[in-house]
């Protein structure tokens, strides 16, 4: 809906050729291998995203590096990652809702629940805490239809400061996603 409203290209962040491997990998238990797989898909998608942006076409994705990194950190990944400076900086919208509505929505999904889906439900507070290190617009979707949420997103200013965004500088260039926050020892925060 957002891509149509913004007349944007919708880019899959797990590209189609990755899908069969995704299904096989999601049956495995190695969180670092899973994280590397998703990062590979994102870097592949980032090339497509940049191609669209270079052509003047806006882009919408369902998730980007912040989601991959926060999810895998919450699941225990210990890899230290520094994102390259050439990545396009997204205007990120973190859609949230109260827990009762979230559980109702999850129960109504028509998709098989993977081992990873179940695991992430045990660490939701860690995911929320990890998201706090990324600048993003928080949109509460509780009790709102998809059309209402779309209107909120369309009305949100995507340039400059936002009350729910991290106020720290995002990097030397306006088009660069900030490096992943790191401990002094050089490892990602758990």
From TrEMBL:
This is Thymidylate kinase. It comes from Streptomyces zinciresistens K42. Gene3D superfamilies: P-loop containing nucleotide triphosphate hydrolases (3.40.50.300). It comes from the Bacteria.
């Amino acid at each position: 809906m957002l891509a149509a409203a913004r007349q944007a290209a919708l880019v899959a962040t797990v590209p189609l050729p990755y899908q069969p491997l995704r299904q096989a990998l999601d049956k495995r238990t190695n969180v670092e291998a899973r994280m590397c797989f998703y990062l590979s898909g994102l870097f592949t998608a980032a090339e497509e995203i940049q191609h669209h942006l270079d052509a003047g076409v806006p882009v919408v994705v369902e998730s980007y590096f912040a989601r991959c990194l926060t999810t895998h950190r919450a699941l225990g990944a210990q890899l230290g990652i520094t994102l390259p400076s050439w990545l396009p900086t997204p205007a990120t919208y973190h859609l949230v809702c109260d827990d009762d509505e979230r559980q109702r929505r999850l129960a109504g999904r028509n998709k098989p629940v993977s081992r990873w889906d179940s695991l992430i439900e045990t660490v939701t507070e860690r995911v929320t805490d990890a998201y706090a290190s990324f600048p993003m617009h928080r949109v509460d979707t509780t009790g709102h239809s998809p059309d209402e949420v779309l209107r909120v997103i369309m009305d949100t200013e995507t340039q400059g400061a936002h009350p729910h965004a991290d106020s720290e500088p995002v990097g030397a260039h306006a088009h660069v996603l900030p490096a992943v926050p790191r401990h002094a020892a050089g490892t990602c925060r758990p």
